[in-house]
């Protein structure tokens, strides 16, 4: 059985890695006024963070179902199955779009997978699936492997400006006002597929240290982990942080990822995150 791997743009897998592992990407959309841009195709993260400095905050939308159908039909010419890995169904209808499209195509078996997370931790699932598929494993075995990895997947992140969460409907106006007044940096995570506060922390430095401590609790097992530092237009800070973390946890392989346009719309510039998963 030949299995194709699909993910969406919010996995933020670098293009060279997608090409190396033949991972197909379906983009979400970012809408500035009347103009829609396909994330990671028409709109890179760098351009996005420049644009939002001078324009009103955009909105975001999931891919049209027809886009999934078109991709799955094209893949049916060369593959027997496709595993379609998407950001958490609790924050986007993208996964459900893949589920619906899977019932509309013939000649290929589609296995939609809800990562229940986003960004490069979602990307870890896609890369694992692609590597496993390259070894000739069938789609059912790959899906079993992805479900197994869910037990060790974690992601925590902090926002620098609460107003983005408030405008995006993720935080009430009162919470945003009080949080800004007290300079609270809420540490967030995914729970039951949605983004919820994990802890309220007073400073950026303490919030980042708390993420490191949480990683340390898992890494203390000595098992090999892969981790990603995720930044919203703070690459230099991310590079420095990786140096510190690599020295602390030799059994963890660190990479640097980013909050692209869609997730960045809801979190805002300056946000930082740390995600990990067993290798």
TrEMBL record:
A matching Pfam family: DegV
Chain ranges passing through the membrane: none
Keyword Protein biosynthesis: no
UniProt-listed InterPro entries: DegV, DegV_C, DegV_domain_contain
Keywords: Lipid-binding
Annotated coiled-coil segments of the chain: none
NCBIfam families membership: DegV
Name of this protein: DegV family protein
Taxonomic lineage: Bacteria, Bacillati, Bacillota, Bacilli, Bacillales
């Amino acid at each position: 059985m030949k299995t194709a791997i699909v993910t969406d743009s919010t996995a933020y897998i670098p293009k060279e890695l997608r090409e190396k592992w033949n991972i197909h990407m379906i983009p979400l959309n970012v809408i500035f006024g009347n103009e829609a841009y396909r994330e990671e195709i028409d709109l890179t993260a760098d351009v996005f963070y420049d644009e939002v400095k001078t324009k009103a905050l955009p909105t975001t939308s999931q891919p049209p179902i027809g886009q999934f159908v078109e991709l799955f039909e094209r893949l049916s010419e060369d593959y027997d199955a496709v595993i379609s890995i998407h950001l958490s169904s609790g924050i986007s209808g993208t996964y459900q779009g893949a589920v619906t499209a899977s019932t509309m195509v013939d000649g290929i078996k589609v296995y939609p997978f809800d990562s229940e997370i986003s960004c490069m931790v979602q990307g870890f699932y896609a890369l694992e699936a692609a590597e496993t598929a390259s070894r000739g494993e069938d789609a059912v075995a790959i899906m079993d492997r992805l479900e197994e990895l869910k037990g060790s997947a974690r992601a925590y992140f902090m926002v620098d400006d609460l107003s983005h969460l408030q405008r995006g409907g993720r935080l009430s106006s009162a919470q945003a006002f009080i949080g800004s007044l007290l300079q609270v940096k809420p540490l967030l995570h995914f729970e039951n597929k949605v983004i919820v506060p994990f802890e309220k922390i007073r400073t950026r430095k303490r919030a980042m240290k708390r993420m490191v401590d949480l990683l340390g609790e898992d890494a203390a097992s000595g098992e090999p982990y892969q981790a990603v530092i995720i930044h919203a237009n703070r690459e230099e800070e991310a590079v420095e942080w990786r140096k510190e973390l690599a020295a602390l946890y030799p059994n963890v392989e660190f990479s640097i990822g980013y909050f692209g346009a869609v997730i960045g719309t809801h979190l805002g510039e300056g946000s930082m995150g740390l995600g990990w998963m067993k290798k």
